[in-house]
Write a structure and sequence with these properties.
With about 400 residues, the chain is of the alpha+beta class. The protein is about 55% helix and about 15% strand. The chain has a four-stranded mixed beta sheet. Strands 2-3-7-6 form a four-stranded antiparallel beta sheet, with helices on one face. Helix 4 runs antiparallel to helix 5, helix 6 packs parallel to helix 8 and helix 6 runs antiparallel to helix 9. The protein binds flavin-adenine dinucleotide.
């Protein structure tokens, strides 16, 4: 986990590690058992200047590289999946506000998200639209100086806790993607907005996931981010960042489960023993370490591409999201097996990491959808190679 990567700021990572050791790791089992929202850890990360790492320092961020963010999130995920999801959602909300919000919107909300004095949320998915955003049915209808919003969002992280929500809605369902428009909602001022109760889930139990219902919810025109129809390109840029987050979580879940097995094996002298059983375990750990190291290098390399390219490296991000989140589940499952019956014990934490890992394959665009994006990129590259020949 400590192999240096040129673009990662290890001074920041040292601070992340200290918050993990002090608060995040010791609270992880309780957060999972009780479904407690990890407010304390989120505040501690923000108090340490780590609230939204990549955001400009002028807006309260740390001005860090995407690879520093990925490495930090990887480590937080290895300690506590719920905390990592709440933490990354703060960034997922701040990033589109920074990209497309007015100066007033940015200056009002981004510093508060960085300080964690506000909780943020990003609301895209609907009961019938997520993978296929052109089917979006939450409508924002213009009415004088206002929009009236009607519809339902679902599976929204932090939604019931949010002070500010980046909402994607359509101004006209007939327009498909061209009607998608982004709005910035101050939840303290909303009438006709009802968050649902936190859903009961397989893992990441402290990270709240809810429906958001809008019934004739009137919002001022000044809540719009950009122009009508500007939402779809913003959404595409936003999901690139959130897919890096999911990928970092995948590597983190794998690393966390691997670390559990190493400590467990070390305590039983299985790392030095020459018995056949112990050596099988040692060889398996060597193989898993190779898989995790390769995935981490891929994650950090694609993170560097995100910072270096003017255009989002969509296919590379899909590839890393798909690869790393699949790794998270398969390595965590293998680690649970390697522990034998102890793998089933809550006190060791490997079973929690396995439960936390599965959903990262599903959110931020399922891995089937990522496969489609990568397949399209392969087809485009092949077609252009044929045209050039
Ligand atoms: C814990 C959690 C937190 C979440 N947080 C947020 C959040 O904060 N904000 C937000 O907006 N959303 C959030 N989501 C929603 C999540 O991003 C979506 O559920 C996910 O991207 C899948 O989209 P969908 O719901 O439209 O699923 P569907 O598209 O309905 O997927 C159903 C199945 O169909 C498959 N499928 C879909 N299209 C195709 C296709 N063309 N070809 C082949 N297979 C296909 C999928 O792979 C999947 O297996 C969250 C979800 C979860 C579970």
């Amino acid at each position: 986990m400590n192999t240096p990567w040129a673009s990662v700021d290890y001074d920041i990572i040292d601070i992340v590690d200290s918050v993990i050791a002090r608060t995040i790791a010791p609270e992880a089992e309780t957060i999972d058992a009780t479904g407690t929202f990890p407010s304390v850890a989120i505040s501690e990360l923000a108090d340490a200047g780590l609230g939204v790492l990549q955001m400009h320092k002028s807006l309260g961020g740390a001005g860090a590289s995407t690879s520093t963010y990925a490495e930090a999130l990887l480590r937080i995920s290895a300690a506590c999946g719920a905390t990592s999801t709440v933490y990354m959602t703060q960034m997922h909300a701040a990033h589109p506000i920074h990209l497309q919000g007015s100066q007033e919107q940015s200056e009002r909300w981004v510093p508060r998200l960085c300080k964690a004095t506000a909780i943020g949320s990003i609301a895209l998915t609907e009961p019938g639209a997520g993978s296929d955003v052109s089917s979006m049915r939450t409508v924002a209808r213009r009415d004088g100086d206002s929009y009236i919003v009607n519809g339902e969002k679902t599976f929204i992280s932090n939604g019931d806790r949010a002070d500010v929500i980046v909402l994607f809605a359509t101004v006209d369902t007939a327009l498909g993607k061209s009607g998608i428009t982004a709005f910035l909602l101050d939840t303290a001022t909303l009438d006709g907005f009802v968050p649902g109760a936190p859903m009961k889930k397989l893992g990441q139990k402290g990270a709240s996931t809810v429906t958001l219902s809008f019934q004739d919810c009137r919002i001022p025109v000044s809540a719009r981010m950009g122009e009508e129809g500007d939402g779809y390109p913003l959404l595409l840029r936003s999901v690139v960042r959130s897919r890096i987050s999911a990928a970092a979580q995948g590597v983190g879940f794998a690393q966390g489960a691997f670390d559990v097995v190493v400590s467990w094996a070390n305590a039983r002298d299985l790392l030095s023993s020459k018995t056949t059983h112990a050596q099988d375990l040692q060889f398996e750990l060597a193989r898993l370490r190779g898989d995790i190291t390769a995935a981490r290098a891929m994650l950090l390399s694609v993170s560097d591409q995100v910072d270096a390219s003017a255009e989002e490296p969509v296919a590379e991000v899909s590839l890393v999201k798909m690869h790393c989140t699949t790794l998270g589940t398969t390595v965590a499952a293998r680690c649970v097996e390697l522990l034998g019956p102890d793998g089933d014990l809550v006190s060791l934490g490997a079973e929690r990491l396995l439960r936390d890992a599965k959903v990262a394959e599903i959110y931020d665009g399922t891995n089937q959808v990522q496969s489609m994006l990568v397949a399209r990129d392969i087809r485009l590259a092949a077609t252009s190679a044929t045209a050039d020949a």
